[in-house]
Write a sequence for this structure.
C-alpha cells in the first residue's frame, strides 16, 4: 500500500479528465496522472459513435471516439500519465485518495492538487416512483447505448422511450437503425429535455412520435416488460384521468435526467450545491477545498462536450498553478446569484483573479428574442431564444469586475428582450 | 423426468423454509428444499421491512406473542456465527395524541407479559433528544431496545447456505404441482413438481403466500391465505442517517403502519402500505400506495426529502384468516406439516418456529424417519466478503490473494468482481440473485453501470451466451439478441 506522489491527480479519463490533464501539463505541472476505473480511456464518449462533437473545439464535426482520441493524443504528447483499471474508491479530506487496480492492488495517491472529473450518471427508474412491476427490459438510455454500441447486443425489439434527454433521443434513432421499432418518446414537461437538433435529426427524420406533457404511469409484465400505460399530465404533472392508454412494448429506455457523480467529492468534504448537485466552484473551477478543482459534468450537466473540454482544460491549468504555488488564495469571493429564470449555473463564485465564463440553463423556455445578462452591467448578449435543454454562456471581464469595487454579489439571468 | 428420494421435503425457501432446513441439517437425514423462484429469497422474505421485532405487538397467549421474542433472541445470538448483517438499533412506537398513549401502555404491558426486555415509554422530548429529526408532533414513544434491523436477504441466504453446507439440497425453479399420498390418503409419500417427483415420508409446507393451496393438495382446508400487499420506498444513503432506529406510528387494524428506518446498509426505508389483493404473485406497486408511504413516513420524520428515492418495491404478506400462525403436524395425512401464515412478526419468529417444529417432528414423526445427530454439523458459515465494509488492510489482503477483488464491478456499492464470481459459485444464476448476494445494482444508479458487467460475468461463469442471462429467471431475459441479426434474418422477429 505504498504511496504514489504526483503534482496533479485527475480522477476520471472522460472528456473532462483528459482535457484537465492537458491543461495541467500546459501550465507547467511536472507529474500529472489521470486515474480511470474503466479499462479504456474516453469515458462515455467511447459509446457515442454518432457525429456532433467538436464543432467548437476543432471546427469540424467528429464522432465521440474521434473527438476523444484527439484529446488523448494531445495528452500523451504532453506527457500525461494514464492509470486505467484504477478505481478511486476512497478520498480523504486532504485530497489524497485510494485506488485499486487488479495488478497493483490497493495504493494511496498523494497529490498536491486534484481535479475531480467523474462525470455524471443517469437517473434510474426507481427515482421516478412509477408504480407497477419490475420486469426485465427497462434500461437507462446510456446503458442501452453501451450494450448496442460497445457490446453488440440488442436490449429489445419494441421500444418506448421515457424522457427526452439527449441520450434517449440518440438511442431512439440508434434502435431504428438496428431494426427495432420505436413506438414513441414521452416527455412529462411541456418542452424537450435535449437539444432541438436531436429532436429533428433523431425523431422527426425517422417519424418517431414525440409526446410532450405525457408520461408513463404504470409498468406491466412479470418476467419481461409487456407494456406501459401512458397518460397526459396536467400543469402540476399529475396524470389526467381518462387519457390513459396501454402500449405493448418489450423495452423501456429512460432518459430522465443526469446526476453529477459526487460520492468522492462528498467523502473529501467538498461542499455540494444542492441545485446543480455538483461542487460549488469559482471561476478557476476551484471547489470549497482550495487544493481540489472540478470540471465537466461532475460540476453541472453540460449540453456539449466542447464546453466540457474547454472548462476542464482551465481547471487543469489552475490545479497546476496551485500545485506549483502560483495560485493566490483570496479571503473573500463574490457570490453569483441566479435570476428568476436561471437556477442551474456555474460557477457560483468569483475569486476576482481572472475573466470568467458563466454557463447557465433557463428554467422556462423563451421562444422569442431575449438576452443573457450579468448585473450590474457586466454583460449583455442578445439571444434568439433560450431553451432548458441548451446551455447559454455569459462572460465577465476581470477589469469590469474590478471597476465595480467592493461588491458582494452579481446576478445572472436570461430575460425577454 | 427423474425421481429423487429424501427423508424430508421442505416446500418454500423463504425465511421459514431456510431456518427449518438449517435445523434439520443438525440431523443425519436427507432434506430437499424446493422453491419455484430462481433465487432466494423470493416472496415475503425478500420484500419486507427487514425488522427483527422486539415482541410487544401481539396479545399474550398467541403463537405470535410466544415465538416473536424468542426469534428475536435467536437472531441476536446467531448473526455473528452465520455472518448476516444485524444492527441493534432499537425501535420506537410513536404517539401523536393523548388517546394513543393508552395504546402505548397496552403495548408496554404486552411486552412485559411476552418477556420482552427493557421496554419503556419515553416523552416526545426525550425521543427528539435521541432522534432530532423525529416530528415535533410526537408526544410520547414506546422504546424497545431489542428491536433490530436486519439484512433479510443475507439472513435467508445464511440459513440456507449453512443448511447446504451441512448436506441439505436446494432446488430452485422447482414448483410443487401436487402432494402425493399413499393409497387411502393416510400417508404423505412426496411431491410432484415441474422437475419430476421428489419422494419423502415427511413434507413440510412453508410455501408462504401459497401455503393454503399446498394444504388443499392434502385436503386441509383449515385456513385461507389472503395476500396483503405492502409498498415501500428506498432512498439514497445520503439521507439514511435521518434516523438511527426503527420508527412506527401507533398500529391500526391493518398492521403496524408505515415505518421509517435506516436499513442494514444505511439507506432509508419507508413503508409498507397494507392493501389486500387477490393475485398472489403480482408485486406491483401502485400510485396510491406509494403516496400513502411518503405521507406516512413524513408524518413521523418530516425532513425526509422526496427526490432521494432510488427504488420502490412491493411485497405480499401471507395473511392467514385464522389471525395467528398456522403451525401443526396433521393427523391425516400422516407426515404433512404446516408452517404457514407466518405473517409479521413472521420473519422475526421464524428461527424460533423452526426449532419448535423440528423438535416436534423428531418426536411425533419418529415412526417415519429416524433423527440421528449429524456428527459433521458445522454451525457457522461466512458470507461473501463485503468489500465496502472492510478496512483498507483487509481489502489489500483480499486483492493480493485474488486480483478479482481489486476489480470494482458496482461503483455505487463498491462490489468487486471477486464477490460476483463467488455469488455465482454459491448458486446465483440471475442478475437479481447477484444483487441479493452482493448488492451489485442495489445502489443509487440501480445497475446502470454494473448491469452489463454483471451480465457478462454471469455469462462467462455459467458458460452461457449473454442473451440467455435473465433478470430473475423464467422469461426475464435481459437481451433479445445481437445487433445486426435483424438485417440478416429479415423482419421475422416479433
Amino acid at each position: 500500500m505504498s504511496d504514489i506522489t504526483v503534482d496533479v491527480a485527475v480522477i476520471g479519463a472522460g472528456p473532462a479528465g483528459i482535457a484537465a490533464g492537458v491543461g495541467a501539463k500546459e501550465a507547467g505541472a511536472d507529474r500529472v496522472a489521470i486515474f480511470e476505473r474503466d479499462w479504456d480511456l474516453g469515458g462515455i464518449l467511447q459509446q457515442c459513435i454518432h457525429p456532433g462533437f467538436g464543432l467548437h473545439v476543432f471546427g469540424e464535426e467528429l464522432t465521440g471516439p474521434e473527438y476523444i482520441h484527439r484529446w488523448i493524443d494531445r495528452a500523451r504528447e504532453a506527457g500525461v500519465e494514464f492509470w486505467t483499471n484504477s478505481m478511486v474508491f476512497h478520498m480523504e479530506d486532504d485530497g489524497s485518495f485510494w485506488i485499486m487496480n487488479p495488478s497493483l492492488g490497493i495504493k494511496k495517491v498523494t497529490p498536491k492538487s486534484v481535479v475531480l472529473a467523474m462525470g455524471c450518471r443517469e437517473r434510474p427508474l426507481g427515482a421516478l416512483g412509477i408504480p407497477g412491476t419490475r420486469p426485465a427490459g427497462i434500461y437507462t438510455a446510456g446503458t442501452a447505448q453501451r450494450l448496442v454500441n460497445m457490446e453488440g447486443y440488442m436490449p429489445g425489439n419494441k421500444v418506448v422511450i421515457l424522457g427526452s434527454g439527449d441520450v434517449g433521443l440518440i438511442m431512439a434513432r440508434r434502435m431504428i437503425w438496428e431494426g427495432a421499432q420505436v413506438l414513441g418518446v414521452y416527455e412529462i414537461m411541456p418542452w424537450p429535455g435535449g437539444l432541438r437538433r436531436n429532436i429533428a435529426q433523431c425523431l422527426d427524420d425517422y417519424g418517431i412520435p414525440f409526446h410532450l406533457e405525457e408520461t408513463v404511469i404504470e409498468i406491466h409484465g412479470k418476467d419481461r416488460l409487456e407494456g406501459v400505460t401512458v397518460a397526459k399530465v396536467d400543469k402540476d404533472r399529475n396524470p389526467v384521468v381518462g387519457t390513459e392508454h396501454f402500449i405493448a412494448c418489450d423495452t423501456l429506455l429512460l432518459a430522465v435526467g443526469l446526476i453529477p457523480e459526487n460520492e468522492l467529492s462528498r467523502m473529501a468534504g467538498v461542499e455540494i450545491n444542492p441545485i446543480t448537485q455538483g461542487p460549488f466552484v469559482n471561476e478557476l473551477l476551484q471547489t470549497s477545498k482550495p487544493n481540489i478543482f472540478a470540471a465537466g459534468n461532475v460540476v453541472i450537466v453540460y449540453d456539449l462536450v466542447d464546453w466540457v473540454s474547454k472548462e476542464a482544460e482551465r481547471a487543469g491549468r489552475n490545479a497546476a498553478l496551485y500545485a506549483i504555488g502560483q495560485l493566490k488564495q483570496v479571503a473573500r469571493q463574490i457570490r453569483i446569484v441566479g435570476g428568476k429564470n436561471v437556477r442551474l449555473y456555474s460557477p457560483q463564485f468569483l475569486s476576482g483573479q481572472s475573466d470568467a465564463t458563466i454557463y447557465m440553463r433557463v428554467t422556462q423556455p423563451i421562444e422569442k428574442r431575449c438576452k443573457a445578462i450579468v448585473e450590474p452591467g457586466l454583460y449583455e448578449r442578445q439571444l434568439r431564444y433560450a431553451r432548458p435543454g441548451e446551455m447559454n454562456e455569459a462572460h465577465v471581464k476581470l477589469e469590469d469586475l474590478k471597476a465595480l469595487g467592493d461588491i458582494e454579489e452579481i446576478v445572472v439571468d436570461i430575460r425577454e428582450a | 423426468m427423474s425421481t429423487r428420494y429424501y427423508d424430508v421435503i421442505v416446500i418454500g425457501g423463504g425465511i421459514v423454509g431456510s431456518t427449518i432446513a438449517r435445523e434439520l441439517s443438525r440431523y443425519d437425514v436427507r432434506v430437499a428444499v424446493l422453491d419455484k423462484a430462481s433465487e432466494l429469497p423470493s416472496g415475503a422474505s425478500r420484500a419486507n421491512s427487514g425488522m427483527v421485532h422486539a415482541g410487544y405487538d401481539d396479545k399474550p397467549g398467541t403463537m405470535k406473542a410466544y415465538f416473536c421474542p424468542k426469534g428475536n433472541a435467536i437472531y441476536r445470538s446467531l448473526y455473528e456465527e452465520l455472518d448476516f448483517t444485524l444492527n441493534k438499533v432499537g425501535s420506537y412506537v410513536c404517539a401523536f395524541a393523548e388517546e394513543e398513549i393508552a395504546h402505548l401502555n397496552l403495548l408496554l404491558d404486552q411486552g412485559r407479559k411476552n418477556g420482552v426486555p427493557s421496554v419503556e415509554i419515553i416523552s416526545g422530548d426525550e425521543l427528539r433528544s435521541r432522534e432530532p429529526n423525529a416530528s415535533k408532533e410526537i408526544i410520547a414513544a414506546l422504546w424497545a431496545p431489542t428491536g433490530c434491523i436486519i439484512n433479510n436477504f443475507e439472513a435467508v441466504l445464511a440459513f440456507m447456505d449453512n443448511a447446504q453446507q451441512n448436506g441439505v439440497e436446494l432446488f430452485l425453479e422447482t414448483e410443487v404441482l401436487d402432494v402425493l399420498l399413499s393409497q387411502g390418503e393416510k400417508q404423505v409419500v412426496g411431491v410432484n413438481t415441474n422437475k419430476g417427483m421428489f419422494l419423502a415420508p415427511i413434507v413440510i409446507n412453508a410455501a408462504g403466500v401459497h401455503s393454503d393451496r399446498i394444504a388443499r393438495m392434502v385436503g386441509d382446508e383449515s385456513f385461507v391465505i389472503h395476500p396483503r400487499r405492502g409498498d415501500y420506498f428506498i432512498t439514497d444513503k445520503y439521507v439514511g442517517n435521518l434516523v438511527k432506529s426503527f420508527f412506527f406510528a401507533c398500529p391500526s387494524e391493518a398492521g403496524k403502519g408505515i415505518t421509517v428506518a435506516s436499513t442494514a446498509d444505511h439507506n432509508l426505508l419507508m413503508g409498507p402500505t397494507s392493501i389486500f389483493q387477490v393475485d398472489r404473485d403480482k408485486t406491483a406497486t401502485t400510485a396510491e400506495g406509494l403516496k400513502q408511504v411518503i405521507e406516512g413516513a413524513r408524518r413521523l420524520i418530516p425532513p425526509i426529502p422526496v427526490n432521494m428515492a432510488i427504488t420502490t418495491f412491493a411485497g405480499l404478506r401471507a395473511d392467514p384468516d385464522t389471525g395467528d400462525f398456522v403451525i401443526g403436524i396433521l393427523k391425516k395425512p400422516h407426515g404433512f406439516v404446516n408452517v404457514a401464515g407466518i405473517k409479521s412478526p413472521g420473519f422475526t419468529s421464524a428461527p424460533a418456529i423452526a426449532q419448535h417444529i423440528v423438535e416436534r417432528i423428531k418426536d411425533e414423526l419418529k415412526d417415519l424417519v429416524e433423527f440421528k445427530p449429524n456428527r459433521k454439523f458445522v454451525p457457522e458459515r461466512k458470507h461473501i466478503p463485503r468489500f465496502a465494509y472492510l478496512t483498507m488492510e483487509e481489502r489489500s489482503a483480499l486483492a493480493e490473494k485474488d486480483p478479482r477483488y481489486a476489480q470494482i464491478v458496482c461503483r455505487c456499492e463498491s462490489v468487486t468482481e471477486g464477490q460476483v464470481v463467488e455469488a455465482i459459485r454459491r448458486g446465483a444464476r440471475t442478475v437479481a440473485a447477484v444483487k441479493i448476494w452482493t448488492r451489485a445494482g442495489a445502489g443509487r444508479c440501480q445497475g446502470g453501470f454494473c448491469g452489463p458487467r454483471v451480465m457478462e460475468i454471469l455469462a462467462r461463469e455459467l458458460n452461457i451466451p449473454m442473451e440467455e442471462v435473465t433478470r430473475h429467471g423464467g422469461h426475464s431475459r435481459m437481451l433479445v439478441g445481437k445487433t445486426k441479426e435483424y438485417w440478416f434474418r429479415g423482419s421475422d422477429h416479433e
